[in-house]
């Protein structure tokens, strides 16, 4: 495997630096259309860009909703989707100083340039230039793409990353170098560290950074996909005394037990409102609730499940609907609060390497989140698994 070259600075024996690479990629030609695996051209990185050989990439609901075309602003085709991956630096453009050829890295959709007023502010993990932007489809420095078809037509980028391809080009602000854990070899961790690009960091970070879940606290997680279960795992690691999982798919309850969930609520099992049941279970409501479903009705239940006076609701689900919050302004005077969380509040380049060390040390358990592994040729089958609710994370390899 290419990972044999970690950290050597001599990853590419054929010296493809500054040359255009021909490789495999899963290309989308329209919303909801099957992915087409074909040869594409990947051009060299420009200033402050990095070209990466992807080792593993996985699929999350953000890829799914974007591919389905739920947000018209994101409809730019042909396009290479994907934003959760791990890989090795093949070459770097002018000006890149914090990584070199052969380094093991993970891409991040929410970048950190380390220079703008947002990056210098401790109160946010937003970046002025490289924050989350589903509409961005070209590279920042010149407004062009680094992908093209074999006959030279441009293929658009996605979410600062584009990882459904054997090679990709990403701005260095959206690439995080992961260091070996002391004398420990990185190779055994490359699969699981793939998940730090999005889902696990988003969920665990929401519990740690956004909510700051404390030992003995009570938590309710609405939506037990990968992000919701990552919230539960983060709350477990912080010592929460009760973690209530809420989902209409009871099959997820079995999986959830291994990730810290202590109690389960299926909204279809009882005519009472979910928030009423949770208040009864917890003596008035939970300290922290997390909405991970992207559903406004669920969001209201999550908000009203939080305890009066101090309860905090963290919004994680992606809401593509134009409808507004289902909260009456006067309800905020009851002391409940609500806040959104992007990428779990992590500043990618400065904080994610330490989080990776904690994962390798076993503070957060990652292995159970990987439910399937397939070759990239079976990407359409992998999407079917996600749509059917049969997978948490399906890893694709080239």
Automatic annotation (TrEMBL):
Domain called Alcohol dehydrogenase-like C-terminal: residue spans: 226-345
Protein name: alcohol dehydrogenase
Domain Alcohol dehydrogenase-like N-terminal: 48-178
Keywords: Metal-binding, NAD, Oxidoreductase, Zinc
Molecular functions per Gene Ontology: alcohol dehydrogenase (NAD+) activity; S-(hydroxymethyl)glutathione dehydrogenase [NAD(P)+] activity; zinc ion binding
Enzyme kind, highest EC tier: oxidoreductase
Protein origin, superkingdom: Eukaryota
GO annotation (BP), single: formaldehyde catabolic process
Species of the source: Sphenostylis stenocarpa
Reactions accelerated catalytically: a secondary alcohol + NAD(+) = a ketone + NADH + H(+); a primary alcohol + NAD(+) = an aldehyde + NADH + H(+)
A GO CC term attached to the entry: cytosol
Keyword Metal-binding attached: yes
Cofactor requirements of the protein: Zn(2+)
Subunit note: Homodimer.
